[in-house]
Every structure is written in structure tokens, then in C-alpha cells.
Amino acid sequence: MEHHKTLDESQIENLFAFVKSHYVEYYDIQLELVDHLANDIEHMLSEDDQLDFESAKTKAFKKFGIYGFSDIVTKKENAVTYEFFKEAFYQTFMHFKNPLIYIFLLFFFIVSKYIPFIYWAIGYNLLLFIGIAVLDFLIKKREKKTNKIYLRDHIVTTQGISICSTLIIIVHSFFLNGPFELFSWLGEYRHYLYSFIAAFLLFFMWVSCIQLPRTFRLSSYRLKQD
Amino acid sequence: MSNQKLFKGSLQTIILKLLERNAKMYGYEMVQHVKQLTNEELNITEGALYPALHKLESEGFVEVEVLKVGNRMRKYYSLTKSGVTETSDRIGEMSRFLETMEQLITSKTKLA
């Protein structure tokens, strides 16, 4: 048997560049894939003296199939995103145990009852949008400081923003396309619905953009390295 | 080759079982292990292994530790508490399934 070959620093760096060039931008996935490729290449080089590093690298990469690394990244993003939303909805509903939410509900109820719908709906949406924009700016600013992006942390910090802006747009266009015709059959009860949606959106935004990014389980190994 | 399809569905169970036996493993090690255990009959494909591992991680059944090995970082996976219970559940499920398949394949009685 041949003796075991070990890749040197520059070859490891080469692998990092290789993985990055295949659109893996998250550091945690990069390091896992680099280690995997390195193990495989070392194994191949030890078994075959004729083989050089570059051809072994190509061989090792081929084993990842036609989707290469992108499938791994997308599937992980999806898994973490799903986990995040489940938690965000759960936490938002948990807030209905919080007395504060009833103050908001009452406030939105009064607003929706006494201010013409179109005014308060636009005003409310505008406020939420400004809130989202400010949060987005703050998060982007913070993420630029570190050049290592961890998949889990990235999703936890940015996913709230993207879902909230989508939700606001949906609710906004849905309501402004004739809310009164749509819910007129509810009569006076429609104000309960409006205030519930308004309070829910506000608390969902709070949970997914501010609370969860602070408390959600981040990449467990991050602190050990950085 | 024809084994691959059947194998893919049980990948998570196999990963859990490997971790139960070895406490702490990294991806490449798992591929090699399965190759050895099955005399190269079965191959875990890299493109399937990592998504399965990441899914188990996000479900909280396995946890990750990164250690420096030589001149690079290595990600080790190990079972969590809930992962241990999950493993025995899934192994039970799988053996029941295999038993049923066995019965189905070897059964000689014809249904009237």
C-alpha cells in the first residue's frame, strides 16, 4: 500500500476557491465540502501515483452529480427556512397570551371603525414598509462587517424581512382591491378581522425580524471558531 | 445500480444508525463506511448524503461540531438526545418493512 498523502495549505486554498466558484457562498458549507473533496482527493492520490491534483479534483467533484453543490445549498436553505417559519408562526401565536397584543387589537379596532379604511390601511402599510426598510438596512450593514456568511445565521437574520415584505404586499393589494365588497357580508364584524390581521402582521414582524434573529438557535459551532 | 433507488429512501435511517454505532462521524467517513460494510454493493452519493445530513440537523436529530484537523476544518456529526430515540424508532420501522417485504417475496401461497 502507498503511504497516505496529505494536501498542503495552498491546495486547500485552491479547493476553497473552487467551491466558491461553484456558487457556494456560505462558509459552513464551503468548509464541509472542502474537507470532503480533500479527503477524496487524498484517498485517490494515495492509491494512484500517476494521478495529479487537478484531475483528482475533477473526479471528486463529478461524484456530486449533475447538480453539483447547488442542490446541497438549496436543500439546506429550504430546510432552515421551513424550520424558521414554523417557529415564527408559533411564537407569533404565543404572543396572543401577551396582554400587550390586546391593547394593539383594541387600538386597531377603534382605528378601523372610525377612520375610513383606505386611509388607515395605506398609513399602516407605509409604516410597516418603512420599518422593514430600516431593519433591512441595519442587517445588511452588520453582515458586511464579517466576510464569512453562515447559512443558518444568514437565513435567520434575513428571512424575516423577505417574508414580511411579501406578506405586507399581499395584504395590501388584497385589501385595497375592494375590501368592503369582499368582507361586506361580515357587516360590523369586519373590523374584528381587520384589527386581527393588523395586529398579527405587526407581531409577526416583531417576531421574525427582531425576536427570532436574537433567540433562534444559530450555527452551533460559530463561537468556537470566530 | 438497481439498488440505489431503494437505498436512497432509507438514507436517513442509515446515517442515524451509523452515528449510533460510531458516536461522531464526518461525511466522507460515512461514505467510506457504507462502502466497506456492504462490500461496495451500496454507494452513498455525495449529492444525497449532505442534504440528508442537513435535514437531520435542522430537525434536531443530529448536532454539529467543527474541529481543526491538520490544515483544515472538519464538520463532525453526532446524535442528539431526540436523535437517539428517533434512531430506534426508524430502525424498528425499517425492520418491520423488511420483514413484510421478505414475506411478500418468499410467500408461495397463491391467493384464491
Question: Outline of chain A, from the CA principal axes?
Answer: elongated
CATH architectural grouping of chain B: Orthogonal Bundle
Instruction: Give the tally of structural domains of chain B.
Output: 1
- Cα-atom Rg of chain B, whole angstroms? 16 Å
Q: How many beta strands in the DSSP annotation of chain B?
A: 2
Estimate what percentage of residues of chain A fall within beta strands.
under 5%
Query: What does the largest sheet of chain B look like?
Result: 2 strands, antiparallel
Strand order of the largest sheet of chain B: 1-2
Element string of chain A (H = helix, E = strand): HHHHHHHHHH
The counted number of beta strands of chain A is 0
Largest sheet composition of chain A: none
Oligomerization status of the protein chains: heterodimer
What is the radius of gyration of chain A computed over CA atoms, rounded to a whole number of angstroms? 25 Å
Characterise the protein shown here.
- The complex is a heterodimer of chains A (226) and B (112).
- Chain A is an all-alpha fold and 226 residues long.
- Chain A has 10 helices and no strands.
- Chain A has helices at 9-21, 27-47, 53-62, 70-94, 99-114, 117-145, 151-176, 179-183, 190-215, 222-225.
- A two-stranded antiparallel sheet of chain B has the order 1-2.
- By secondary structure, chain B is of the alpha+beta class.
- Chain B has one domain (4-106): Arc Repressor Mutant, subunit A (Orthogonal Bundle), CATH 1.10.10.
- Chain B starts with a helix and ends in a 6-residue tail after the last helix.
- Classes of the chains: A mainly alpha (226), B alpha+beta (112).
A few lines on this structure:
The complex is a heterodimer of chains A (226) and B (112). Chain A is an all-alpha fold and 226 residues long.
Features:
heterodimer; A: 226 residues; mainly alpha; 10 helices; 77% helix; 0% strand; B: 112 residues; alpha+beta
What is this structure's SSE topology?
The complex is a heterodimer of chains A (226) and B (112).
Chain A: H1 9-21, H2 27-47, H3 53-62, H4 70-94, H5 99-114, H6 117-145, H7 151-176, H8 179-183, H9 190-215, H10 222-225
Helix pairs in contact in A: 1-2, 2-3, 4-7, 4-9, 5-9, 6-7, 6-9, 7-9
Chain B: H1 3-9, H2 11-22, H3 27-37, H4 46-58, E1 62-69, E2 72-79, H5 81-106
Helix pairs in contact in B: 2-5
